[in-house]
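User: Here's a protein and a ligand (thiamine diphosphate). What would the complex look like?
Assistant: Let me lay out the input and then the predicted complex.
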Amino acid sequence: MDMITPEHLIRQLDIDEMETAEWIDALKSVLATSGPERARFLLSQLAATARDAGLNWRDARITPYVNTIRPQDEPAYPGGSDAVAIEERLAGIMRWNALAMVVRANRAYGELGGHIASYASAADLFEVGFNHFFRARSGDFGGDLVYFQPHSAPGIYARAFLEGRLSEDNLAHYRQEISARSAGIQGLSSYPHPWLMPDFWQFPTGSMGIGPISAVYQARFMRYLEHRGMLEAQPRKVWGVFGDGEMDEPESLAALSLASREKLDNLVFVINCNLQRLDGPVRGNGHIVDELETLFGGAGWNVIKLLWGSDWDPLFARDTHGELVDALNRTVDGQLQTFAANDGPFNREHFFGQSPGLKAIGSMLTDDEIDRLKRGGHDLRKIFAAYHAATNHRGQPTVILAQTKKGFGMGTAGQGKMTTHQQKKLEQSDLIEFRDRFKLPLTDAQVENLEFFKPADDSEEMKHLQARRSALGGHMPQRAHDGATLPVPALESYATFALDAGMKEMSTTMALVRMMGSLLKDAGLGKHVVPIVADEARTFGMANLFRQVGIYSAQGQLYQPEDIGSILYYREAKDGQILEEGITEAGAISSWTAAATSYSVHGLPMLPFYIYYSMFGFQRIGDLIWAAADQRSRGFLIGATSGRTTLGGEGLQHQDGTSHLVSATIPNCKSYDPAYAYELAVIVDDGMQRMLQQNEDVFYYVTVTNENEAQPSMPAGARDGILRGMHCVQPREGADIRLLGAGPLLKEAMAAASLLETSFGVKAEVWSVTSFSELARDGMASERAQRLQQEHAQPWITEKLQGSNAPVIAVSDYVRAVPECVRAYVPAPFVTLGTDGFGRSDTRAALRDFFEVDAKWITYTALAELYAGKKSADEMREIASKLGVDLGKAMSTQL
Ligand SMILES: Cc1ncc(C[n+]2csc(CCOP(=O)(O)OP(=O)(O)O)c2C)c(N)n1
């Protein structure tokens, strides 16, 4: 190992210390006599002079590697030393129970996994939050919202155990949710999971990066509701505790400037800078804290460095020549980790041994004291000071960069070790060391048995813990579902134009926007509708909504829009209703999730419609949608310009042939690909009924297109079929062939039917498939019920197609795997057509020929099925040539 030795750490010498001192003294004297305002002015004048002289000097935005808050500025700790001591003991107990939970689960079943080291580093950060800052929703107060670092979940369970919310049985079933359920117990999920623990977790954070971006948009959505007068403005906070490694995820940093632009002082990030991630150091050769300081500071955040504990204060006080600060500035994170993993004598030699001045500072401490020197994120007083400053800061979001030790207290077994992240086994000696380190009143045998420890109800610790939580409004985290409903307008009140379309031409996108426009005007529901776009409102014909309901902007509109004279001018307003997010699908979906979970988070149901290019949905931000599903979101995702052949020359980057394949995998997402405006109307109505009236935790993915169609009126009795996945749009007694068309390709199926009839005398029946995935789900459930319960449960698709052996041809504008998912339930020969391969630009007609999904290809496919074994190859070639089908063409996947 290359050690950083004093030789390596050669101080950059100041070439004229006298001159430096004069400048510093001058500034100090200005500060003392004329105050900070004048000092700031002079500094900016100096900077301007440097700029004029072409020095190209820029403030590095990095402050020294010390705490931002000076000791003299720290507020008194509420409850004084007693409270600190009690809370330190509580943190020790939490750590123990969290550790016992993981090690026990692992002893019982080696495969179960779990994490100890992350929570061990975060425990104090959480404890100060739980004891002094995180306010629960209670009475009229909406409560704070906390995004917890995911793999610290065992610590949150440990606290809930002490608070009496979880039992020993729950703890004993950590990561054993299935076996727990069969024993009638609520198991504990590995990460925050609202779907699996619906009364407990509010926000899923398990997939790194999702927590940070969601927290920003959550804080923003809270402001949106307040500015629109929907939610009382209260001093609520959104807290996010995240890992320093997690900050490398692009989503973690993606919304930083939004947060400062919108002055979200209701937002506090606490970054647990234990300097390690899973495999090793986050920035072994640098300082992650400094890097984050630059990033957050540059993005306009208030940055608080919380690096060293109170026991460092006297050392800094002795550091009159700045040698200590200098050494810290230059000790890279990899080295700091090595110091964390080693003991007092090692640190004395290798850190304090770097220079005589440092040696003298180190001599103030015993080896044991050096060993126990705390990092800022383990010192309750320092943490309190940082949180206090953050919560009182106005006009900016705050980030606290809290330096901790990964595996804090895990001794030689884990603290600061490269492998500590994965550690879930500890030797008896390590456990004993842990007990002693945190002064836990456990016997050796109790330690050996990994017994959970809960102090008596009348103990100081328990009384303090309960009193603090009750002062802060109750337990956290806690997920509410109050069952509030919203009135759903009658379908006829907003969709008559679609139900009785009478062959009027319109696209399904136009139909949707028209319905939304009416819903927004509805007296009861209107203000709960949240239209969300990512810079594509005009593409989807939504510009009229700009004027109608306005675009939300925290600052209102500070300029006269260029198009002020037009009826549809670009109107921004503080109470605007549209969330126009700009080019950020990740941001827009985060807003959608905040709105789609408002029923639970704020007890205020909202109805978000996020309308986007369908290609940039599940493919681009699928994980955020998955997290929204876990969070029991309710709302509409509208995949516009959908399908692979409806856009034509508009650009292949938008051509989506897969979103329905992915959306089908999300259990609470109901996906539809309607062809007609009336189908869309029925789907929107059903969604609103289920989500707003019946409080079902489902959300809808609906694809629409911008292809104009002659829209028929809704046939009687079609509703059930539309919602279940298919209904007959062209019945034909004694049909020779059945055609299933989905979305934009239904019309190709219709055209094929008439071609078959007129040119080949073949009778074809046509069905509109609104959802292959709903048909498949129904098929799976029925098939299983039949197998397990011997029930006579027939899938909807089987019921509709049975009684005939006429071949069935299915066509959709998605890859063939989409229609293929119903194959098992089709009681006749079945062929699927779809748009596999890369998209490309051309006319719709050329694309549909290329993917072999147009009327002539459907016709040829139908005839090939009907004539199999009956017509010769030559006869089939003749038919193809008559149809204009090129049988020699390469497959769409090959080109
Ligand atoms: C998107 C994603 N990628 C990878 C992981 C796997 N993972 C879980 S924890 C972890 C390391 C986290 O390091 P850090 O954020 O520094 O937190 P620490 O445990 O050090 O506090 C990784 C890579 C994940 N959960 N999500």
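Summary: Residues 118, 121, 151, 206-209, 243-246, 272, 274, 276-278, 282, 406, 421 surround thiamine diphosphate (CB under 6 Å).
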